[in-house]
Amino acid sequence: MGRITLEGVAKRFGDVEVIPPLNLDIEDGEFVVFVGPSGCGKSTLLRLIAGLEDVSDGRILIDGKDATDESPAKRGLAMVFQSYALYPHMSVRKNIAFPMKMAGMDQAEQDRRIEAAAKALNLTNYLDRKPGQLSGGQRQRVAIGRAIVREPSAFLFDEPLSNLDAALRVGMRLEISELHNRLKTTMIYVTHDQVEAMTMADKIVVLHAGRIEQVGSPLELYLRPKNAFVAAFIGSPK
Ligand code: ADP
Ligand code: MG
């Protein structure tokens, strides 16, 4: 579970083609980073995969099944945003439980998943607090917890750490990498930060003006950038 294939996927807003047709294969369990400058189409591409935007052309396959016309809920993917989008009046426990409650899951199963997520994210002692009583890093962990309890086949992160200060960002990067090692679930992670891409990714997708410039491991991109844009962006010596 967690294999995602884009076939000729394109996106236009009115007359503007933000993403020309592209192909991409994401393997089950991979940590894939979409990296590129602001405005290059990273969020749009992620939202197409999530089903939050409709494709203008092409197909999206999830685990070999055509999901192009599936609703976001049916795709089995969980999105984590940079603005944590927590409910301020609800406790951490209720925030994490929210998607399960909406799905009508029975209470014992909800409790089991909340305990497991809280343990994985070091939130066990914070379950009765409100988001306003948490640090930025803790709030981001709650947002991740709310994604974990859905047991998605892939996590989609859109610049989840950009609201955090530099020191906290380093810690959260490690936490997310560790979570990936533990869960072994596909993760697609969007960032404009080359260091984040180079340190976290199994596979980096370099985007520029909606096009894929290169796909490869951090080492491949560093040693063999395909063009001057990739070399400059990744900061390799060529
Ligand atoms: P990134 O996440 O890499 O910063 P985006 O995917 O947000 O880039 O945006 C890519 C391009 O698409 C930008 O030029 C942006 O203005 C445009 N765009 C994004 N969403 C919309 C929209 N809903 N309507 C029109 N243009 C949009
Ligand atoms: Mg964006």
UniProtKB/TrEMBL annotation:
GO terms for molecular function: ATP binding. The keyword Nucleotide-binding applies. It comes from the Bacteria. The keyword Ribonucleoprotein does not apply. Keywords: ATP-binding, Nucleotide-binding, Transport. Residues 4-234 form the ABC transporter domain. Belongs to the ABC transporter superfamily. This is ABC transporter ATP-binding protein. It comes from Paracoccus spongiarum. The lineage of its organism: Bacteria, Pseudomonadati, Pseudomonadota, Alphaproteobacteria, Rhodobacterales.
